[in-house]
Amino acid sequence: MKELPKANKGLRIAYVLDPRFAGGTSSAVAAELRAVCDMGQVHVYALETKMFSGRYVAPQLSDVLTELNLPLTWVDTEIAADVVIFHNPSSLKFQEQLGTRIVARHLIVVTHENFLRPGGAEGFDVEKCLDQIAASSITLKRSLAPISAWNRSTVESWCRKHVLAAGWSLLEDDWFNICSFERVPPTTAPRDRRGRHSRPGSEKFPPNDVMELCFPETAERNIILGADRFMGDDDVPVFWTLYPFGSLTLPHFFEQFDFFVYYTAPTWRESFGRVVPEAVAAGKIVITDQETANSFEGAAIGAVPQEIDQIIATYVAQPERYRADVLSAQASLDRFSADSFRGVFKDVFGKAAGVFA
């Protein structure tokens, strides 16, 4: 076990979440814990919501708790701290009450799931989830913390149409995912080799005609990781190489192509899109929809699927430009570093708690 760095004993920090999320929520919290574990007395509280069954902890979160020697408490009574960080309120959507009292100077609710889908439909029963938290908390300040530009736009749009319980505010800074991935140098000879990965949910994939625009027969290679929904389907193009979710390590996956092409269903959009910085760090040009690209400000190319072939052809013909743009994109990931996150945490929450100078 790793010995905890010397903590600022004046600040009590509580993380609250359902620890059974398999994807972005647990990965984001794991990275945050590494970043803030020396900034105060950190404790992690596990909620047993009705979103999952069985009591367990996602591997990425379990590993970091062991690494940092941090306590985990399955809680059903009270959580008290200076700063309480509640990750992913959508975990409450299948129940009527939180069942746990929260007492804090500042309660931050991190909005991992978009409040609205493209087109304006609610992503989940937002009011139901936020009301459970408000009814169960005694705080000086209660804030919503969007995780990206797109996520913030959905939160703001929802708030304009609904009356929140008294005491809610919106954080000025995005509560971004920490993206401290190892950076791999880009290839000096890019080819039209394309890849994508995601969990296999149907919302993660665009319609089949768009998939064929993204991964056409003219490409030298099309690698799709997380392709469970296509496997065994007789209509799947023979020029796609399919792998089930989790069947390849990410380094092995990324070494097989030069362009990461990522689009989702038109009725759904990533709230952060962790796959984008993962692919950039792995040395790839990333092409995605404009809204997702906007959350990364220069790390990804925003385009419509009909433009992909020309974008790739241009880079294949200009390898020096490919290399320069990948390196520039990697440099832009610095704003998602652990140090950047610590700066936001210290300024917004540490000073508010009266602990940091």
Beta strands, count? 13
Shape: globular
Q: Mind telling me the CATH class of the largest domain?
A: Alpha Beta
CATH topology of the largest domain: Rossmann fold
Q: Give the neighbour order of strands across the main sheet.
A: 3-2-1-4-5-6-7
* Secondary structure category: alpha/beta
In which range does the helix fraction lie?
25-40%
Count of DSSP H/I helices: 11
- Content of β-strand: 15-25%
Low-pLDDT runs: 1-7
Output mean pLDDT. 92
Name the descriptors.
357 residues, Rossmann fold, single chain, 13 strands, 7-stranded parallel β-sheet, disordered N terminus, 2 domains
Architecture overview:
By secondary structure, this protein is of the alpha/beta class. The chain has 2 domains: 181 residues, Rossmann fold (3-Layer(aba) Sandwich); 142 residues, Rossmann fold, CATH 3.40.50. The longest helix is centred in the C-terminal third of the chain and has 14 residues. α1 packs parallel to α2 and α1 crosses α11. The radius of gyration is 21 Å and the shape is globular. The protein has a 7-stranded parallel beta sheet with strand order 3-2-1-4-5-6-7.
Topology:
Elements (H helix, E strand, L loop, with lengths): L11 E6 L6 H13 L4 E6 L12 H10 L3 E3 L3 E10 L13 E11 L14 H10 L1 E10 L2 H13 L6 E3 L22 E5 L10 H7 L6 E5 L15 E3 L6 H5 L4 E4 L12 H7 L3 E4 L1 H5 L6 E2 L5 H10 L1 H14 L5 H13 L7
Parallel strand pairs: 1-2, 1-4, 2-3, 4-5, 5-6, 6-7, 8-9, 8-11, 9-10, 11-12, 12-13
Helix pairs in contact: 1-2, 1-11
